[in-house]
Amino acid sequence: MRVLIIEDEPKVAAFLRKGFAELGWSVDLANDGKSGIASALAGTYDVIVLDLLLPLVHGLDVCKAIRSVRTTPILMLTALGTTEDKVKGLELGADDYVVKPFQFEELVARARVLTRRHGRSEPELFRVGDLVLDAERRLVSRAGTEIALTPREYALLLELIRQPGKTFTRAELAQRVWGISHDTGTNIIDVYIKYLRNKIDRPYERKLIHTVHGTGYIIRDDVP
Membrane-crossing residues (predicted)? Predict the structure, then answer.
Protein backbone atom coordinates (compact mmCIF):
# COMPACT_ATOMS: atom_id res chain seq x y z
CA MET A 1 0.00 0.00 0.00
CA ARG A 2 1.11 3.55 -0.68
CA VAL A 3 -0.06 6.40 1.54
CA LEU A 4 0.37 10.16 1.27
CA ILE A 5 0.36 11.98 4.62
CA ILE A 6 -0.40 15.71 4.43
CA GLU A 7 0.37 16.96 7.94
CA ASP A 8 2.27 20.02 9.16
CA GLU A 9 2.87 19.00 12.79
CA PRO A 10 6.34 17.38 12.77
CA LYS A 11 5.68 15.02 15.70
CA VAL A 12 2.37 13.79 14.29
CA ALA A 13 3.84 13.40 10.80
CA ALA A 14 6.84 11.44 12.12
CA PHE A 15 4.56 9.25 14.25
CA LEU A 16 2.32 8.42 11.29
CA ARG A 17 5.22 7.85 8.91
CA LYS A 18 6.91 5.47 11.34
CA GLY A 19 3.69 3.58 12.05
CA PHE A 20 2.75 3.05 8.41
CA ALA A 21 6.32 2.17 7.41
CA GLU A 22 6.49 -0.52 10.09
CA LEU A 23 3.33 -2.04 8.61
CA GLY A 24 5.07 -2.26 5.26
CA TRP A 25 3.30 0.69 3.64
CA SER A 26 5.14 3.06 1.31
CA VAL A 27 4.92 6.54 2.80
CA ASP A 28 5.22 9.99 1.23
CA LEU A 29 4.93 13.13 3.34
CA ALA A 30 3.85 16.70 2.56
CA ASN A 31 3.94 19.35 5.29
CA ASP A 32 1.70 22.04 3.81
CA GLY A 33 -1.40 22.27 1.67
CA LYS A 34 0.33 23.44 -1.49
CA SER A 35 2.88 20.62 -1.59
CA GLY A 36 0.14 18.20 -0.54
CA ILE A 37 -1.93 19.01 -3.62
CA ALA A 38 1.14 18.72 -5.86
CA SER A 39 2.10 15.32 -4.41
CA ALA A 40 -1.45 13.96 -4.57
CA LEU A 41 -1.85 14.92 -8.23
CA ALA A 42 1.63 13.79 -9.27
CA GLY A 43 1.65 10.40 -7.55
CA THR A 44 -0.54 7.32 -7.32
CA TYR A 45 -1.71 6.51 -3.80
CA ASP A 46 -4.01 3.96 -2.20
CA VAL A 47 -5.13 6.44 0.46
CA ILE A 48 -4.41 10.02 1.53
CA VAL A 49 -4.33 11.07 5.19
CA LEU A 50 -5.16 14.77 5.23
CA ASP A 51 -4.96 17.20 8.13
CA LEU A 52 -7.31 20.19 7.93
CA LEU A 53 -5.35 22.95 9.66
CA LEU A 54 -2.53 23.29 7.14
CA PRO A 55 -0.32 26.25 6.19
CA LEU A 56 -0.51 27.84 2.71
CA VAL A 57 -3.70 26.03 1.67
CA HIS A 58 -6.41 24.94 4.13
CA GLY A 59 -7.14 21.23 4.28
CA LEU A 60 -10.70 21.67 3.02
CA ASP A 61 -9.39 23.41 -0.09
CA VAL A 62 -6.77 20.69 -0.49
CA CYS A 63 -9.51 18.08 -0.33
CA LYS A 64 -11.57 19.92 -2.94
CA ALA A 65 -8.58 20.30 -5.28
CA ILE A 66 -7.63 16.62 -5.04
CA ARG A 67 -11.18 15.38 -5.44
CA SER A 68 -11.69 17.46 -8.59
CA VAL A 69 -9.04 15.32 -10.30
CA ARG A 70 -8.50 12.12 -8.30
CA THR A 71 -10.75 9.45 -6.78
CA THR A 72 -8.09 8.43 -4.23
CA PRO A 73 -9.68 7.77 -0.81
CA ILE A 74 -9.16 10.70 1.58
CA LEU A 75 -9.09 10.23 5.34
CA MET A 76 -9.32 13.54 7.20
CA LEU A 77 -7.23 13.94 10.32
CA THR A 78 -8.21 16.95 12.38
CA ALA A 79 -8.56 18.54 15.78
CA LEU A 80 -11.80 20.13 14.61
CA GLY A 81 -14.39 17.81 16.07
CA THR A 82 -17.63 19.69 15.44
CA THR A 83 -20.35 18.17 13.30
CA GLU A 84 -20.22 21.16 10.95
CA ASP A 85 -16.51 20.64 10.24
CA LYS A 86 -16.98 16.93 9.60
CA VAL A 87 -19.96 17.44 7.31
CA LYS A 88 -18.17 20.12 5.29
CA GLY A 89 -15.16 17.89 4.77
CA LEU A 90 -17.31 14.95 3.69
CA GLU A 91 -19.31 17.15 1.33
CA LEU A 92 -16.08 18.30 -0.32
CA GLY A 93 -15.09 14.72 -1.07
CA ALA A 94 -13.39 13.26 2.01
CA ASP A 95 -14.31 9.61 2.58
CA ASP A 96 -13.89 9.42 6.36
CA TYR A 97 -12.40 11.30 9.30
CA VAL A 98 -10.50 10.71 12.54
CA VAL A 99 -10.45 13.33 15.30
CA LYS A 100 -7.25 14.10 17.21
CA PRO A 101 -6.15 12.69 19.59
CA PHE A 102 -6.53 9.27 18.02
CA GLN A 103 -5.33 5.69 18.31
CA PHE A 104 -3.08 4.70 15.42
CA GLU A 105 -4.79 1.30 15.22
CA GLU A 106 -8.13 2.99 14.53
CA LEU A 107 -6.65 5.20 11.83
CA VAL A 108 -5.06 2.21 10.08
CA ALA A 109 -8.30 0.23 10.31
CA ARG A 110 -10.23 3.09 8.71
CA ALA A 111 -7.58 3.49 6.00
CA ARG A 112 -7.80 -0.21 5.17
CA VAL A 113 -11.59 -0.06 4.98
CA LEU A 114 -11.32 2.80 2.50
CA THR A 115 -8.84 0.95 0.31
CA ARG A 116 -11.09 -2.13 0.24
CA ARG A 117 -14.15 -0.01 -0.49
CA HIS A 118 -12.37 1.56 -3.45
CA GLY A 119 -11.08 -1.78 -4.70
CA ARG A 120 -7.47 -0.88 -3.93
CA SER A 121 -6.58 -3.70 -1.56
CA GLU A 122 -3.34 -5.40 -2.58
CA PRO A 123 -2.76 -9.13 -2.98
CA GLU A 124 -2.31 -11.04 0.25
CA LEU A 125 0.41 -13.32 -1.08
CA PHE A 126 3.56 -12.33 -2.96
CA ARG A 127 5.88 -14.93 -4.48
CA VAL A 128 9.29 -14.90 -6.08
CA GLY A 129 10.57 -18.41 -6.72
CA ASP A 130 10.16 -20.33 -3.48
CA LEU A 131 10.02 -17.13 -1.39
CA VAL A 132 6.53 -16.29 -0.10
CA LEU A 133 5.38 -13.18 1.76
CA ASP A 134 1.92 -13.41 3.35
CA ALA A 135 0.89 -9.76 3.82
CA GLU A 136 -2.27 -10.59 5.76
CA ARG A 137 -0.45 -12.59 8.43
CA ARG A 138 2.89 -10.76 8.04
CA LEU A 139 4.71 -14.05 7.53
CA VAL A 140 7.71 -14.73 5.30
CA SER A 141 8.93 -18.17 4.29
CA ARG A 142 11.28 -19.76 1.80
CA ALA A 143 11.04 -23.36 0.66
CA GLY A 144 8.45 -23.85 3.40
CA THR A 145 10.70 -22.57 6.20
CA GLU A 146 9.47 -19.51 8.09
CA ILE A 147 11.89 -16.57 8.25
CA ALA A 148 11.79 -14.06 11.12
CA LEU A 149 12.28 -10.46 10.00
CA THR A 150 12.38 -7.20 11.92
CA PRO A 151 9.66 -4.64 11.03
CA ARG A 152 12.10 -2.66 8.88
CA GLU A 153 13.43 -5.75 7.11
CA TYR A 154 9.85 -6.81 6.41
CA ALA A 155 8.95 -3.38 5.02
CA LEU A 156 12.01 -3.42 2.74
CA LEU A 157 11.26 -6.91 1.45
CA LEU A 158 7.61 -6.02 0.88
CA GLU A 159 8.64 -3.02 -1.21
CA LEU A 160 10.88 -5.20 -3.37
CA ILE A 161 8.56 -8.19 -3.73
CA ARG A 162 5.56 -6.08 -4.72
CA GLN A 163 7.27 -5.53 -8.08
CA PRO A 164 9.56 -8.44 -8.94
CA GLY A 165 11.92 -7.58 -11.75
CA LYS A 166 11.83 -3.84 -11.03
CA THR A 167 15.09 -2.11 -10.18
CA PHE A 168 14.69 0.13 -7.14
CA THR A 169 17.15 2.95 -6.62
CA ARG A 170 18.50 3.58 -3.14
CA ALA A 171 16.65 6.90 -3.13
CA GLU A 172 13.33 5.16 -3.85
CA LEU A 173 13.85 2.64 -1.06
CA ALA A 174 14.93 5.32 1.41
CA GLN A 175 11.81 7.36 0.69
CA ARG A 176 9.33 4.48 0.62
CA VAL A 177 10.64 2.41 3.53
CA TRP A 178 12.25 5.00 5.80
CA GLY A 179 10.37 8.08 4.63
CA ILE A 180 13.63 9.99 4.22
CA SER A 181 15.65 11.48 1.40
CA HIS A 182 18.62 9.29 0.55
CA ASP A 183 21.92 10.71 1.71
CA THR A 184 24.76 9.41 -0.44
CA GLY A 185 26.91 9.44 2.68
CA THR A 186 24.60 6.95 4.39
CA ASN A 187 24.73 3.21 3.73
CA ILE A 188 21.54 2.28 5.60
CA ILE A 189 19.96 0.75 2.47
CA ASP A 190 23.00 -1.44 1.80
CA VAL A 191 23.13 -2.52 5.45
CA TYR A 192 19.51 -3.67 5.46
CA ILE A 193 19.86 -5.38 2.08
CA LYS A 194 22.72 -7.34 3.65
CA TYR A 195 20.48 -8.27 6.59
CA LEU A 196 17.82 -9.53 4.16
CA ARG A 197 20.32 -11.49 2.10
CA ASN A 198 21.69 -13.19 5.20
CA LYS A 199 18.21 -14.44 6.04
CA ILE A 200 16.66 -14.99 2.61
CA ASP A 201 19.52 -15.84 0.24
CA ARG A 202 22.53 -17.02 2.20
CA PRO A 203 21.11 -20.44 3.22
CA TYR A 204 20.01 -21.19 -0.36
CA GLU A 205 21.80 -21.88 -3.62
CA ARG A 206 19.48 -19.71 -5.73
CA LYS A 207 19.85 -16.01 -4.96
CA LEU A 208 16.83 -13.75 -5.29
CA ILE A 209 18.06 -10.29 -4.26
CA HIS A 210 20.46 -8.83 -6.82
CA THR A 211 22.55 -5.67 -7.00
CA VAL A 212 22.18 -3.47 -10.07
CA HIS A 213 25.54 -1.74 -9.99
CA GLY A 214 25.37 2.03 -9.97
CA THR A 215 21.61 1.98 -9.49
CA GLY A 216 20.17 -0.09 -6.66
CA TYR A 217 18.53 -3.47 -6.05
CA ILE A 218 16.10 -5.90 -7.64
CA ILE A 219 14.39 -9.10 -6.54
CA ARG A 220 13.87 -11.79 -9.17
CA ASP A 221 14.06 -15.51 -9.74
CA ASP A 222 16.56 -16.14 -12.52
CA VAL A 223 15.82 -19.86 -12.66
CA PRO A 224 12.82 -20.83 -14.86
Answer: none
